[in-house]
Design goal:
alpha/beta; D-Maltodextrin-Binding Protein, domain 2; 2 domains; 11 helices; 45% helix
Length: 327
């Protein structure tokens, strides 16, 4: 009959197997493909930029990195997929300004808590929004637009967005509050669809991510009036900022970060963070993102967390003032 000591030793060894298995999995991470969840449809700015990052990350880690598009609820669906995934580092995701900040006030029920339900890996990039009109518009600058919109009357001027709660929507609401305009919101499935209606004259304006509309701007299919950031965009040096156009304290960027499920093992999180930060130190990568309409930030998790903490109260104020709510 086995002794009590031998039974306890055997039990102890068996109980330690899961811990040893986890430690082994962490030490050889990654040993299989990863997926990056993008919470928007294919072809949009977040998707295109995520694919560039995914290619670089795949080369650095020596494993395939698959992009998985999970659109819905202005990014909430995809971000929730990350929150519910296994916390092993093989599922990570792009998280944007909406789900990580503005939506805490906009949505009556959010399926995740952006402050507590994720492991923050890195800040990724900032995207300016561009105020654009169609070529048939009689206005050539922001102040002319304001005068023209007031002359047209309440809710007679329409604007398109990729959906409720996107930065295109909230940025335009901020513009409306600052100017006293009441504009008609026309939400679309994607910004790419909206810009086609802008070109056709079915809507009057857009305030959308630069990567979504940069081709139409360069092709002179639409007219840019202003950029949302505090400084002019290097690729469009002739386009003034909203502040230069007379809209005080208007500095809005559509930022994104990389997240993983909460309780991600520290060695795995550190490896992913290190590779992302290293990516942002490559001038070739930085130049590629700028060419695509984004500014690389690629800093550690503390930068991303600082953004979240700053933006939550900022957008809560805008949303409350505009009387917006999604049940």
């Amino acid at each position: 009959m086995p002794s009590r000591r031998s039974v306890l030793a055997a039990l102890g060894g068996a109980l330690s197997l899961p811990a040893l298995s986890r430690a082994s999995a962490q030490s050889d991470f990654p040993n299989r493909p990863l997926r990056i969840v993008v919470p928007f449809p294919p072809g949009g700015s977040q998707d295109v930029l995520a694919r560039v990052i995914g290619e670089r990350l795949s080369a650095a880690l020596g494993q395939p990195v698959v992009i998985e598009n999970r659109p819905g609820a202005a990014g909430n669906v995809g971000v929730d997929v990350v929150a519910r995934a296994e916390s092993d580092g093989y599922t990570i995701g792009v998280a944007t300004i909406g789900p990580m900040s503005a939506h805490t006030a906009l949505y009556a029920r959010l399926p995740f808590n952006p402050r507590t339900d994720f492991t923050y890996l890195a800040d990724l990039f900032e995207i300016p929004n561009i105020f654009v009109v169609n070529l048939a518009s009689p206005v050539s600058n922001v102040q002319e637009f304001i005068a023209w919109a007031k002359q047209r009357g309440s809710a007679k001027v329409s604007y398109g967005t990729p959906g409720i709660g996107t930065t295109a929507h909230l940025g335009t609401e901020l513009f409306s509050r600052k100017t006293g305009l009441e504009l008609l919101h026309v939400p679309y499935r994607t910004g790419a669809v909206a810009v086609q209606d802008l070109i056709a004259g079915r809507i009057d304006m857009m305030f959308d991510n630069l990567p979504t509309i940069i081709g139409q701007i360069e092709g002179k299919q639409i007219r840019p009036l202003a950029v949302s950031t505090g400084r002019r965009w290097p690729g469009l040096p002739e386009v003034p900022t909203m502040i230069e156009s007379g809209i005080a304290d208007f500095d809005v960027t559509s930022w994104s970060g990389m997240i993983a499920p909460r309780s991600l093992p520290e060695p795995v999180a550190a490896r992913l963070t290190a590779e992302l930060v290293k990516m942002g130190e490559d001038p070739t990568f930085v130049a590629k993102l700028q060419q695509m309409g984004a500014s690389s930030t690629m800093k550690g998790p503390e930068v991303l967390r600082a953004r979240v903490e700053k933006e939550i109260p900022r957008w809560a104020e805008v949303i409350k003032a505009a009387g917006l709510r999604v049940d």
